[in-house]
Inverse folding.
């Protein structure tokens, strides 16, 4: 028997959220959007996935209102909408959980509040300011748990440099 593709019988907000972002690759596409990846070819290179799957996932994210298409320099780009940016706390929490479960060397990336330069704590708050800054106020840099043998393609190299979250990435 084939698995269903939705959670129609579930009266649950988590189930409804998973209908939007629960397919394989979708959260990684959204992560890359926060990291500044915007172009189809750059997603393709960085995520190393098939064109057909990437095209389907991006179309679904646009239809769901999490991404929008924009023109820049004569090329189409994918940009997070307000609704998409609202996913940041969930992605940050999953990232922190993933570091705690799978990265004995420490976090793979460190996020800091750009306004005061203070590293965020595991809950996503800035201990100096006492608030959870939005993604546009964050900087990221490689952490002690980042790979000793990172991928060499230009997208991965560009993402190893300290940078602002949401800043368009142009390797």
């Amino acid at each position: 028997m084939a698995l269903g593709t939705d959670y129609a019988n579930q009266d649950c907000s988590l189930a409804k959220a998973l209908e939007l972002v629960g397919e394989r690759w979708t959260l990684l596409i959204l992560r890359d959007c926060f990291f500044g990846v915007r172009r189809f070819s750059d997603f393709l290179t960085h995520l190393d996935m098939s064109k057909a799957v990437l095209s389907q996932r991006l179309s679904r994210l646009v239809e769901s209102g999490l991404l929008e298409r924009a023109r820049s320099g004569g090329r189409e780009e994918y940009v997070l909408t307000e609704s998409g940016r609202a996913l940041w706390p969930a992605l940050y929490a999953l990232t922190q959980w993933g570091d705690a479960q799978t990265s004995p060397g420490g976090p793979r990336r460190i996020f800091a509040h750009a306004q005061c330069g203070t590293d965020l704590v595991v809950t996503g708050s800035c201990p100096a300011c006492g608030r959870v800054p939005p993604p546009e106020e964050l900087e990221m840099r490689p952490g002690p748990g980042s790979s000793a043998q990172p991928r060499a393609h230009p997208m991965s190299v560009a993402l190893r440099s300290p940078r602002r979250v949401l800043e368009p990435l142009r390797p």
User: Anything to note?
Assistant: Helices lie at 13-21, 26-34, 40-47, 51-63, 82-85, 88-102, 154-159. Strands lie at 67-72, 75-80, 109-113, 118-119, 138-142, 163-164.
